[in-house]
Design a protein that fits this description.
single chain, alpha/beta, Rossmann fold, 2 domains, 8-stranded mixed beta sheet, 15% strand, globular
Length: 330
């Protein structure tokens, strides 16, 4: 993990680290916002441990017990929360006042509520996007960053996964993804799905959400569809996940420019970071991680050669666990 140049970055398959033991929250509750949303949060580990905040993916995903297991529960004070409209946060699947900037405000609201001065920020996929945007906006509150499956939320990345790119690697799964959309609308799949996922008829939402979620589940891991998260098969979860994810993507992440993160990456200059990236990640291809590392030399960069996008692939687990162990020393 200490190799600092992209050309040297790799992950060995020997002596890999596994997840820490499962651990239960010692505190949980709902945090009011300045609008209709109430944010569900948990604290795990130990009260006097090193503080960190763990950001789930999507947008539209939710926290789960596995996310706690990347950190040593005897040394960390972990904060996890369901983002607006997600998981146990209320109201479910709501798109009202649900933007990158409102989520950043929620992270700050949670930090203040917990009395934390600075913390390590951990996130993968969309969680990496949100972590980077938060760190750029509030660098004085970020002690370190541990990131996986880098997603900069650029038009190029969205075109790759939702229009023309990943479709060539998974033509069978792509056919299922296209099935709910008429031929004349397939030139802009995100817009076509957005129309259906925001429809007033829940049956139309459910059909679109199921197909949208299955596409991501079918491509998430080199281990195949059996690695698809089971929650993708639950209609209520799929609707919240797909509605919120498509809402963010249709609005370009609510960023001021197409390459906002890289344009502002200089604000991370003083923050130590770890990037763990699957070489065969189809959902968030390695090009984005490479670009981020190039623009942020202080970050340690590790490529896992036998992994895709899923955080639970053995090489990704190993890289992230070693990163959180290293972050204890910051």
């Amino acid at each position: 993990m200490e190799r600092n140049t992209p050309a040297q970055a790799f992950s060995s398959t020997s002596n890999r680290r596994g997840l820490f033991a499962d651990n239960e929250p010692f505190d949980s509750g709902w945090l009011a916002t300045d609008g209709p949303h109430e944010i569900y949060y948990e604290q795990c580990g130990v009260q006097d441990g090193k503080p960190c905040v763990i950001l789930h993916g999507g947008p539209g995903g939710a926290i789960n017990p596995t996310m706690r297991r990347f950190f040593d529960p005897s040394k960390w004070r972990m904060a996890l929360f369901d983002q607006r409209g997600c998981g146990k946060s209320r109201p479910n699947a709501s798109l009202d006042d649900n933007t990158t900037w409102s989520l950043i405000a929620d992270i700050e609201r949670l930090r203040e509520h917990l009395g934390v001065e600075k913390w390590c920020v951990f996130g993968g996929s969309w969680g990496s996007t949100l972590a980077l945007a938060y760190a750029i906006t509030h660098p004085e509150r970020v002690e370190s960053l541990v990131l996986r499956g880098i997603f900069l939320l650029t038009p190029r990345e969205l075109r790759w996964f939702y229009q023309d790119g990943a479709s060539m690697l998974f033509p069978d799964a792509w056919a299922r993804f296209c099935a709910p959309i008429p031929l004349e609308e397939r030139g802009d799949m995100i817009s076509a799905y957005h129309k259906r996922l925001t429809h007033t008829d829940r049956r139309i939402q459910a059909e679109a959400a199921t197909a949208w979620s299955q596409w991501e589940g079918d491509t998430i891991s080199i281990r195949g569809p059996e690695a698809r998260p089971s929650k993708f098969n639950e209609v209520d979860f799929a609707i919240a996940f797909a509605r919120i994810e498509c809402h963010f993507f249709a609005n370009g992440g609510f960023f001021d420019s197409e390459n906002w993160i890289l344009e502002n990456v200089s604000k991370l200059a003083g923050i130590p970071g770890w990037i763990v990236q699957g070489r065969f990640d189809v959902v968030t291809p390695m090009d984005s991680a490479w670009r981020l590392k190039t623009a942020w030399p202080k970050a340690r960069f590790e490529v896992v050669w036998d992994a895709g996008h899923a955080s639970t692939e053995p090489g990704i687990v190993d890289g992230l666990v070693r990163a959180t162990e290293a972050a204890l020393r910051v």
